[in-house]
Each structure stands twice: as C-alpha cells, then as structure tokens.
Design a protein that fits this description.
five-stranded parallel sheet; alpha+beta; six-stranded antiparallel sheet; 587 residues; 23 strands
C-alpha cells in the first residue's frame, strides 16, 4: 500500500487505489466492478471539485467589492461618453454582455449574503385596529397560477372568510392559510366592504408577492388526507361554462374518460380533484355526484336535457346480417376451425334478440356522471379479459376480428355460436356451431344463457355465455363482436370486459370512392353522400348512448392499419395495468 502524505488530494488517492486493485480468483467480479467505478471520469471530477471547495473553506476569502455590478455599469457608462480604442471597445462589449452582467449580479448577491427574502414590517396599528384579536401577516409568492383558495362572506358576521383551500395551490403549499381564516387586507387594501367577486379579481390579478392580513380561525385542522378514491368521468365538464361554480378559475376541466383523483369531499356540492398523470399538482373544483344529478333532473323537468335512458335499437354495424348466416366459416378460401362469423340479426325483423330486460323505474333516470375505478394488473394465473368489439355503421368489425384471430389462433379465440340449423356434411359439432334442437334453444333462452339471439331463414342462432367461458378457460383471449345492448351483460366482474368501439374514418375524399363491401351503396356501387351521413350519425349516436362503457376508440382507416392497431391494443391490455370499475376487484 503506498504511503499518502497529508497534502494528497482525494482524486490522487482514488488513482492510487485504482492502481492497487489486483485480480483475485475469489473476488474477480468485485475487483472489476470497483476498478470501473473508481475509473469513472465523472467521479474524478467530483473529487477535484470537493478539494477546491475544501480549499476555499479553509482560506475563507472575503470579497474585495460588494457591488461589482454597479462598478461595471459606471465603467461602461464612462466608456460610452468618449472615443474608444480597440481595447476599450472590447472591454465595453464584455461589460455589457448579458452573461457577464448576470455573473456580477450573482457575485454581489453572494458577497452581500443576501439569500433570504425580506419580510414586510408589521403594521404599527395592529392593536388599535384589531383590539384583542390575533393576526397573521402572510406573504405568498405566486406566478401566473391562481392563488388556490376561494372565499365567501359569512352570513352571520359578514366577514370575508376562506371557504376552501385547493390542494397543490400556492395557499396550500404555504401551509399558512386555512379554511375559516378571516381575510382583512390584501396588499395593504382593506377588503371588509368589498364583495367577494371584487376580492377574487384583486387576488387573480396580483402577480409576484401577495400580502394578506388574516385573523386565524379558532380551530385549524388539516382535513386533507391523500384520497384513494379514483373516478372515471362519464361526461365533459368546462368550468367557464358553468355559472353555478363558486370560482371558475378554480374549476377543473375534464373530458369523458379522464381519470380523476378526488382529494376532498368535505363540500357536498363541490369536490376537489386532480387529473391522474397531470403535471399540474393543484386540485380543482368539480361538481359532486349528487349536485350533478340534481342539476340534470332539473334540466329534464325543464325539457333542456334528454333522458339518459338508451333506446332498444341503434344503427350499428349490421353489414353482415345476411352473409353471416350463410358463411361456411372459411377465411381466404381456407377452412379455419372455430372461425365462425358472429351472426347479425336485424332489429327491424326480430325484436328482443338481445338479452335485455326492461329497465326498472329507478333506472330510467340513471345518469352517467362518475364511475369509481381502480388500477387492475393481470397476474399470471388470472384468466384473460374478455375483449368486446362494437362498431358503428360501416366498421366491419367481424372482418377485423377474424384477421387478428387467424394471425395468432393459439392466443385468440372466438365464441362458437349455437344454432338450430341442421348440420352440414363437412361441419363438426363445436367447431363451426353448437347444433341443438329448437326445444333446447328455447329452454336456453328462458334460462338467460344467450347474450344475443335471433332467427334467420327459420333457423335460430345465438351466442351463449358458456361459449365465452369455454374460450377463456383455455387461457385464450376471447374476441366477441356484439350489439352494444349486450354490454350490460358482459361488463361484469366475471369477464372484466375491455370494450373497443370501432368506427370508420370518413374523410371527404371518400365520397366518390368505390367500396363493394360497404353498406348502403348507391346503384352505381359508389358510396353516396347519404351513406356517409348515415355512417356519421351512426357513430355519433353510438358514442352518445354507449360511450361511457367504452375503454378504447379505434378509428378504422383501412383494414391493414386497423388490424395492426388492434393487435397493439391487445398486447398492451395483457402487459399494462388498466383502470376498471372498483366493484370488479373488490372481494
């Protein structure tokens, strides 16, 4: 081991240690690791910086001048008043450079040890003005963000008091302002006789530091605790369009599908919430569930809001109604076991073909406001989640489903439907169909075993819950495409259905494009303006009625790109955690 002198620096010591590391048969990996760490250039630089700082501390230098920036300004002003030589011109350029000015300003700050903020002096007339009441002088520094507090006038005393503190705002971060505090002055201006709207305007327009004179509440309690309540928003909300909100600037805008973390439910009318994965840490106001329900009920009575009750039928992807039941279960000319197209039955010809009971009277006014959710991560022993595809007019989701299954039949499967049609010579039981008698089919209907069923050419067809369970039991992801009315049956804790809404992209250039497989073609085989309008209305209507049940929207540009996107969605579904209704994972 080399002898180290008292003047040996840390970086020199590190170099010596590195040279003394010799390979050892028993600790070869450790020696290699240490040599790599000690040889890091960044570590050597840190050691040198540490030595320089130690030397600086031992020398304890004192600044020659406390106002170098002022001296530089005086010299620059003097140079500008006369003719300049080349050296003087270069000096003037240096002294007026922004970076040099900034360095000199920092030098003066360090030399003067001006590190702490200067607190405002206490007013001399505190005792005379406030008698025996205690007072707090609070100085907050805010940028362009709101203060993060709302105020109201006390109905009994008439005092202006803090109504709520927004989580993550400037007031909350300071820890100096609490709910119930009485506000007397803002930046030295008395506000006792001002209206809350005027005070809010003063606070919002103030930039930089704000000085508040406050009489603390008698009882100060921090009632904010980190909430574990997460909600999925089922409607769009814009605070600046809401006249009922106590403070539009404090409102939290959100769109349907956003995940909100509720941090306070103390106010029965206005909750405080944050958007999950939002960079803004300040909480905002959102209408509570009860308040939003009351508003919607009132609007329904006034005729300004439509009932949330969904009709029994909706325009959807019924482009395969007739061809499905005549299909032989083949793809690209090759017979593929289990690849049966799900039947599609026209609601015009057969009412009640989806297992759907009439809603009770209490469900007629079931509003889509919030849904409590939690993160769900699939574990190795968990059954795959059911993937449900719904599509608007022209989406052709059955074709999309078949392509994904053909590409990976060992990972994805389809529920084999039941039928009363006689079995053909080339068909096998449980492959193309489950062949049963009409009596057995009717019995299964009565036992609510089908998610949807109907009749075509005097034969009955249906997709059963047991067929779905059979696919999931084989550890395959079951893909089903159903009418959206069936979602209420499938969105349960048993299946944990992941719903994908597929709708076609309808650009203007498609108005004259030929599409031999598109629905509702004109006589010349082209998509007409009326067809496009029907497709748009179908997508809008389905989104309005069933959008709250949808986890992902897939806009279908063409079959190839839509197939790639669907595969990516399915892969992420198995790999990444997803938000699901909290009731699905509760024991």
């Amino acid at each position: 081991m080399p002898v180290l002198s008292p003047t040996t620096g840390l970086h020199e010591m590190l170099a010596l240690l590195t040279s003394q590391l010799h390979p050892d048969a028993n600790h070869k990996e450790d020696i290699v690791f240490l040599r790599e760490v000690f040889s890091e250039r960044s570590l050597s630089y840190l050691m040198k910086i540490h030595e320089r700082l130690r030397q600086f501390q031992l020398q304890s230098p004192t600044p020659v001048l406390h106002s170098a920036s002022c001296l530089a300004e005086d010299v620059a002003e003097e140079l500008q008043n006369g003719p300049l030589e080349e050296d003087e011109r270069e000096l003037l350029t240096l002294l007026t450079a922004p970076h040099v000015k900034a360095v000199l300003t920092v030098h003066d700050t360090v030399a003067q040890k001006n590190f702490e903020p200067v607190l405002p002096p206490l007013p001399d007339d505190l005792d005379d003005e406030l008698e025996e009441e205690s007072v707090k002088i609070v100085r907050l520094v805010k940028n362009k963000e709101p203060l993060g507090a709302t105020i109201r006038r006390d109905e009994v005393t008439g005092a202006v008091v803090v109504a709520r503190i927004m989580r993550g705002g400037a007031a909350d971060r300071s820890g100096l302002v609490h709910v119930g505090d009485e506000l007397r002055e803002v930046n030295g201006n008395l506000i006792i006789h001002k209206r809350p709207e005027e005070i809010s305007q003063i606070l919002s327009q103030s930039q930089g530091s704000i000085t508040l004179k406050i009489i603390p509440a008698i009882k100060e309690e921090d009632r904010f605790k980190e909430s574990k309540v997460y909600l999925r928003a089922l409607f769009d909300y814009t605070p600046f369009e809401d006249k009922a909100t106590p403070c539009q600037e404090a409102g939290l805008p959100f769109t349907r599908g956003d995940i909100l973390q509720v941090v306070s439910q103390d106010d029965p009318t206005w909750w405080q919430a944050k958007r999950v994965r939002d960079s803004n840490l300040r909480a905002g106001l959102i209408p509570s569930r009860q308040f939003q329900e009351r508003r919607l009920l009132y609007r329904m009575k006034m005729g300004t809001h439509q009932s949330p009750k969904s009709p029994r039928a909706t325009p959807c992807d019924q482009t395969c109604e007739k061809e499905d039941c005549d299909s032989e279960g083949s793809v690209s000319g090759q017979h593929v076991a289990g690849l049966r197209r799900s039947f599609r039955l026209s609601r015009k010809d057969h009412q009640g073909s989806t297992k759907e009971s009439c809603p009770a009277e209490s469900e007629e006014n079931e509003f889509f406001i919030y849904e409590e959710v939690t993160l769900y991560q699939m574990r190795p022993h968990d059954k795959p989640r059911l993937v449900v595809l719904i599509g608007s007019l022209g989406a052709r989701i059955n074709e999309l489903k078949q392509k994904v299954i053909v590409e990976n039949p060992h990972r994805y499967g389809v529920a084999v439907p039941h039928t009363t049609r006689p079995r053909k010579s080339h068909e096998k039981e449980g492959v193309e169909y489950h062949f049963i008698s009409k009596q057995a089919f009717e019995a299964d209907i009565q036992s609510n075993k089908f998610i949807e069923y109907g009749e075509y050419k005097n034969n009955q067809y249906g997709t059963s819950l047991e067929s779905i369970r059979s696919v999931l039991a084989r550890n395959k992801v079951c893909l089903v495409d159903v009418q959206p009315e069936a979602l209420k049956i499938l969105c349960t804790a048993e299946f944990k259905a992941y719903v994908i809404f597929v709708k076609p992209r309808i650009p203007e250039i498609c108005r004259q494009r030929s599409s031999p497989t598109s629905p509702g073609r004109g006589d010349n085989g082209h998509i007409t303006d009326e067809d496009l309008q029907d497709m748009r209305q179908s997508a809008e209507q389905m989104d309005q009625q069933y959008g709250h049940l949808v986890d992902r929207v897939l806009v279908k540009e063409d079959s190839a790109s839509a197939c790639v996107e669907l595969r990516n969605i399915l892969e992420r579904l198995e790999r990444e955690p997803q938000w699901v209704p909290a009731s699905w994972v509760r024991s």
